[in-house]
C-alpha cells in the first residue's frame, strides 16, 4: 500500500507546486527591471564581460534571478543554460480516458523490462521477505543477470538441460542470495523439472518475452533516431514515453536470449548432502583425473575448483564477454551525455520533465557501470546475482532509484498536454513549437496532410512588438510557411534556433503604410495568401490623430491593397490583431475601444461593400493582456505591470490573459487556414471575431479551455 500513497502525495505536491510556479514572474524579476544605481566604473577583461545575448526565459517558466552583469561571461554555459529549465503545470485538460491510455503506454516498457527480466526465486529455507526481493527489480540487477548468464554459457566446457535450469534459477538460503557456479553444480540434480533442450525452444514463453522486449527497444531506437534529424522537434518527455530509454536497455537481453528460461522447478529445502558429480555429469566430458575421483566418490560438487566445468574469467571467452558488455554500457553512457549536452546547450529551452528524465537515466547508467565494473574487475562475475545485492548501499540505491522514477514520472505527467494534432508533449505552448512538432509527428506516423496544410506565402507587420515577436517565431518554425514577407520601418536581426528557418523570411523596409506601390505588390509581395496585421501602438504614446492613423487607416489601406494579391478563385486571409474592449458600435467610453471597434467593423464590411475585395477573408482577433514571450522591447511601465498585475490576473481572471505563444499559434493557424468562419465559445460576428477565451481554446491552452467552457 506504500506505493499508491507515495504516488498520490507526489502528485498532489506536484500540482500545488505547478500552481505556484505557473506564474511567469517573481519579485526578483520586478527588482531586476528597476533602475540600477550608478556604480563606479570598473574595467573588466573582455573574457569576463557581460554578454547582451543571454537568452530570456520563456513565459510561464520557473527560473533563477539574473546574476550581476560582471559575473556572467559567455564562457559560463552552465549559468546561462540554467535559465532555460522550468516547470509548467499543463495537464488539466486531459480526460480520465486519456489518462488510462497514457498510463498504459507509460507502464508497458517498465512492466516488460522488469517482469520479463526478473525470475521467481527458489527458497531453500522459509519464506522470502519482500524487502529482500525488491532489489532484483533494479534494472542494474537485471542487466547483471543477462551478463552473467551469457558469460557462464560462453565459458562452459559442457552444457546440458540441467545446467540451463540451474543457471536461470536464483536460490535463497534463508539469509543470502546465491546464483554462483557452485550452487549451479550443487543443485543441478535437485530439479523436479528441466527444459527439453540445452537452449530455449523456438516456440516458448521465453522467446515470446524476448520478442516483446526487442520490439519495444527497436521502436524506442527508431523514435530517438527520427527526432535526432535536423528540423524535427521532439515532444519533450510526455508521460507516455518516459520509460522508452528503459526499453532500449531491454535489448541487452538479446545476447543471453538463447539461455533464458523459466521452464524448470526445484525442491524446496536443503539437500541432505552434496550431490556427486558422477550422478549428473557424463564422465567422458571430464578430465581424466576428475573421472577417477568421480568414480571413487571422492569428488563432490561443493569443491571450489570448477576448472573442469568452466574456462576461467580471464580466458579469451571471459574477456570478450566482459569487454562487450562494459563497452555497450559505456556507449550508452556517452550517448546519454551527448543527448543531455545537446538539449542543454545555450539558447535551447527545456522543461523540468526533460531535465528530470535525463538526470534519472544518467544516474541509472552511471551506477550500473560503476557496480558492474567493480565486480567484473575484481573477478566476481561468476554469479547470476549481483554480489552487492544484500549490501546497504545497493538497497539504498534501489530505493532511491524507485523514488526518483516515481518523482520524474509525476513531473512528466503534470507537464503533459495535448496539442491540436493529437500529439502529447511537455513543451509549453508558449514556446510556439506546436506546428513544427505536429509536422514531425505526422511525418513519423505517415499521416497524409490535409488540403489546407499547404505551404504558403504570408505577410507580417509589427514583427518586433509584443504580439509580433512570438508570431514571427511561430511563422519561422512552421513547416506550412514557405515564404515570409515582413513589412518593417527598419532592418532587424531575425531570431535563430534549431527549429527556426530564417532563410524563408525577407524584411521589406516600408515607411508609408497607407500606400503600396505596384512594384511592391507585383514584386516582393506577389503570391502572398495571407497577412497577420500585428502592428499597433498604445494610445498613451501618440496623439489621437496618429493613433487613428496607425490603428484604423493603416490596416484598412493594407486590406484593400492585399486583396489584389489573391489568385483567381482563391482567397486572402487578413488577420487583424485588435484587443479586448473593442466595440464595433463605438459606444464604449475608452478611446482605443472605439477606434479598434471601428477598424473591426469596417474591415468586416470590405468583402461585401466592394466586389473587387470579395476574396478577402477577415478575422478580428481580440487578445486580452498579452503575456510577453520573451520580455524584450517593453517599456518600463509595462515591465512593472508584467511583474505585478500579470500574476494576479492569471489567477483571478485567466480568460483576460493571453499567452504570447498561444496567440501566435492561433494567428498562424488563421493566416494559413481555409478562411471559413469560426465556431464555438469565444467567437462573435458570425465567426469572424475571436475573443481571448476563444483564442486560448483554439490554442489548446488548458486554462483557456476551462475558461471557455
From TrEMBL:
Q: What is the lineage of its organism?
A: Eukaryota, Fungi, Dikarya, Ascomycota, Pezizomycotina
This protein's species is Trichoglossum hirsutum
What the entry lists under InterPro entries is as follows: NAD(P)-bd_dom_sf (IPR036291)
> Which keywords has UniProt assigned to this entry?
Membrane, Transmembrane, Transmembrane helix
Spans through the membrane? 99-119, 207-227, 239-260, 319-339, 359-377, 397-416
Q: Where is this region: Disordered?
A: 673-709
Listed PANTHER family = NAD(P)-BINDING DOMAIN-CONTAINING PROTEIN, OXIDOREDUCTASE HTATIP2
This chain's protein is named NAD(P)-binding domain-containing protein
